[in-house]
Design brief:
10 helices; disordered N terminus; binds adenosine-5'-triphosphate; 6-stranded mixed beta sheet; Rossmann fold; alpha/beta; 8 strands
Length: about 290
């Protein structure tokens, strides 16, 4: 892969003035309806992510994706088609005080009543997982978020992963881990009984989130990590560039990668795993002769 490609966090800094809240909220169902709100609602419906009676903890890191997700949830609650409740949660993993202030200010400006709680994850990860901080951080973060969600009486935890995260994860697994595994729109939590993780931004394209963020004039948190930042190259940014390059010759490449997980042909698969057990096509080769 080209060594000159970006291996650190891309930074999003909106060019214009911050728009009034009423304009930002209106834009979600007018200017950005097709690109954002309709796709959010469609993923919730296609994958049956939310039902009447649910209480969803919406996880906010303060980045562009989760700030938008919070506003999309508020819009959905307002529309009242599904009778469910939301709580907004943000775990402070040990952010620099200026970063934390930006998170608080953005949530206040956007009228997102967020519960910010201490996770102290950066400190622990830096101490015990110096070489692979991202993996450990993600695991600890997930646990902390589930705990908080449970404490608030929620049965679902919503994360702000989007369409491009899904595609990049699928490709990362094929290219670097030698397996075919996508990022699922929902899954049951393993260590938190009755709790489900949902990804309602599943169909939303990242460049549309960037367009929206630019339009709002809100400065999201960029690169708030205090452990891995600048220490290691991030394969995800390399994959982003890689996809961007293939897209020049094959504009539908993202759609194809996304669809691949919907169209797995079980007659052309050598092996698979299910509930921790491995299978080979040979195990079933002589069946139904
Ligand atoms: N400190 C945190 N507190 C609460 N939720 C978090 C936190 N960090 C991450 N999340 C949740 O996990 C999702 C994925 O995290 P990741 O670090 O990959 O974010 P990202 O792709 O940079 O998205 P974002 O723009 O929302 O930060 C976020 O969108 C958010 O829902």
């Amino acid at each position: 892969m080209d060594n000159s490609i970006q291996s650190t966090c891309p930074v999003l800094v909106p060019e214009g003035e911050r728009k009034p809240l009423s304009e930002i909220e209106r834009s979600i169902i007018t200017r950005y309806r097709h690109k954002l709100y309709s796709k959010f609602v469609r993923a919730i419906s296609d994958y049956n992510l939310i039902q009447d009676g649910d209480k969803v903890a919406v996880a906010i890191s303060g980045g562009k994706d989760s700030l938008l997700m919070a506003k999309l949830f508020q819009e959905l609650v307002k529309h009242n088609k599904i009778k469910f409740e939301v709580e907004f949660i943000a775990m402070d993993p040990g952010y620099h005080p200026d970063i934390k202030k930006l998170l608080e200010e953005n949530c206040k400006y956007l009228n997102i009543p967020v519960h910010i709680f201490d996770g102290k994850i950066f400190e622990v990860v830096d101490r015990i997982a110096k070489d692979y901080p991202c993996y450990m951080c993600a695991r600890m973060r997930r646990g902390a978020l589930y705990n908080k969600a449970k404490e608030l009486g929620c049965n679902k935890l919503a994360l702000g992963h989007h369409y491009n995260d899904v595609i990049e994860t699928t490709l990362l697994n094929v290219l670097y881990s030698g397996n075919f595994k996508t990022m699922m729109p929902k899954l049951k939590a393993q260590n938190f009984e009755g709790m489900e993780l949902i990804r309602p931004m599943y169909y939303i394209e990242e460049h549309h989130i960037e367009q929206f963020t630019n339009y709002t004039g809100i400065w999201p948190l960029n690169c708030a990590c205090m452990v891995a930042a600048k220490k290691i190259g991030n394969k995800r940014y390399e994959i982003k560039e890689f996809i961007k390059n293939i897209k020049k010759d094959f504009p539908d490449v993202e759609k194809s990668i996304f669809k691949a997980a919907e169209n797995v042909n079980m007659e052309a698969i050598l092996g698979w795993q299910n509930k921790g057990k491995k299978y080979s096509f040979l195990d079933f080769y002589d069946e139904n002769e």
